[in-house]
Amino acid sequence: MRAASDNSNATPPRAGLAQIAGYLIGPAFLAFAVYLFMSSRHVDLPSAPTPVVTPAQITIAPPRTALGDPPIVTIGGYAQRCNACHKLFKTRDHPDRPRVQHLNITLRHGLNNRCLNCHDRENRERLTLRNGDTVIFPEVAMLCAQCHGPVYRDWTRGAHGKTMGAWSPEVGQQRKLICTECHDPHSPAYPPYVPLPGPHTLRLGSHSAHDVHEEIRRSRNALLHWSSERAASTAPATGDKTNPAHKPKERR
Ligand code: HEC
Ligand code: HEC
Ligand code: HEC
Ligand code: HEC
Questions:
Q1: CB of 185 closer than 6 A to ligand 2?
Q2: 189 CB less than 6 Å from ligand 3?
Q3: In this structure, what is the dihedral angle of CA atoms 167, 169, 174, 176, given to the nearest 10 degrees?
Q4: Is the CB of 144 under 6 A from ligand 2?
Q5: How many domains does the chain have?
Q6: Residue 140 within any structural domain of the chain
Q7: For 71-87, what is each residue's pLDDT tens digit?
Q8: Same domain, 124 and 171
């Protein structure tokens, strides 16, 4: 009973005040927003251009294209089989003489520095094994296995190289990349990967300054950046302690 009578006494005038206040809140905030907008000044935050990553840089394709069977090379503008030339002449037997053909090939394979360690003397379209057997080019792993036994064993078990397709041969088709799809047999050291650009965060600043890390640390913090800019613009010309990288840019 008491609560009811309290309500009937207090509510009518308060409701009027609250209503007026309610109508004022909107315009008041709007006016404040306009004030903030008008009074703020332009701060030039450095933002680096977005680094470009080309599709070629993130392809999952093998790094090289290996020769098939029969191997075809383009020499003097003609695509031809090895034996188109090699059946016309015999290999001469002094390996250290200067070459007149295949000058694009430089051997950087350690002690393995004879062409005929790998290429068959009689049939240039095959590779040679230690015991005199030969294999076609797509079976190059058998050749490499002659000298790189442990790596070959790892490769057959999937610990070296790369297997495409299904994880298990029972589930679906598998394709193991062959050695020459990653290694150039003449210069087999795997070239180091060039790292892709890091993530593009806002305000990383320009990387041209000497102390890049200090610059990044400071310019990531918009407030620090702004205050140092302000300090620079108000400080006397001498005794200016601000990082030269943060000298204010041209004002707009
Ligand atoms: C346009 C003709 C031509 C074609 C095609 C050609 N070769 Fe040769 N190749 C030559 C000649 C000429 C020499 C000899 C170079 C010398 O005596 O200095 C040679 C030399 C070589 C040698 C060095 C050992 C030797 O016989 O003196 C190897 C190994 C070789 N070729 C491999 C190949 C392979 C593998 C292919 C195919 C993928 C191929 N060549 C295709 C012309 C050719
Ligand atoms: C470690 C073994 C090995 C040695 C040593 C070697 N080759 Fe090869 N060579 C290969 C293999 C494997 C291929 C196939 C490459 C591919 O599939 O991309 C090849 C490809 C070639 C080709 C055709 C492709 C091209 O790059 O033009 C020529 C020509 C050739 N070799 C010549 C030579 C000559 C000349 C020498 C000696 C200076 C030599 N090779 C030494 C293994 C060898
Ligand atoms: C006749 C023996 C022989 C054959 C065949 C052979 N290699 Fe080698 N390989 C060597 C030797 C020797 C080294 C040098 C080791 C060193 O200098 O430490 C080497 C080094 C390498 C290296 C390391 C290179 C580096 O600098 O890190 C790779 C990768 C390699 N071989 C891949 C291959 C591939 C792929 C094949 C098959 C096309 C192959 N090798 C065939 C003997 C051979
Ligand atoms: C999918 C690509 C790929 C394939 C396929 C591949 N390799 Fe490699 N190989 C590599 C990479 C990557 C390295 C490491 C290079 C490094 O650490 O600098 C390497 C390193 C090597 C080395 C030197 C280091 C070591 O462990 O002795 C040898 C030798 C080698 N590979 C031989 C082979 C042979 C032989 C085959 C085929 C049976 C093969 N590779 C297939 C990518 C490949």
A1: yes
A2: yes
A3: 90
A4: no
A5: 2
A6: yes
A7: 999 988 899 999 999 99
A8: yes
Taking the CA atoms of the chain, what radius of gyration do you get in angstroms? 37
Which numbered atom of ligand 1 lies nearest the CA of 118? 29
Mean pLDDT of 41-53: 75
Check whether residue 119 and residue 170 sit in a common domain: yes
- Separation between Cα atoms, residue 47 and residue 44, nearest integer Å: 9
CB 181 within 8 A of CB 62: yes
By DSSP bridging, strand 72-75 and strand 78-81 are antiparallel
pTM: 0.77
Ligand nearest to the CA of 75: 1
Whether residues 76 and 166 share a domain: the answer is yes
Residues 81 and 129 in one domain: yes
Is the shortest distance between the CB of 249 and ligand 1 below 6 Å?
no
Q: Is 115 in the pocket of ligand 1 (CB under 6 A)?
A: yes
Residues of the domain holding 140: 64-92+115-181
Q: Name which residue sits closest to atom 37 of ligand 3, judged by CA.
A: 144
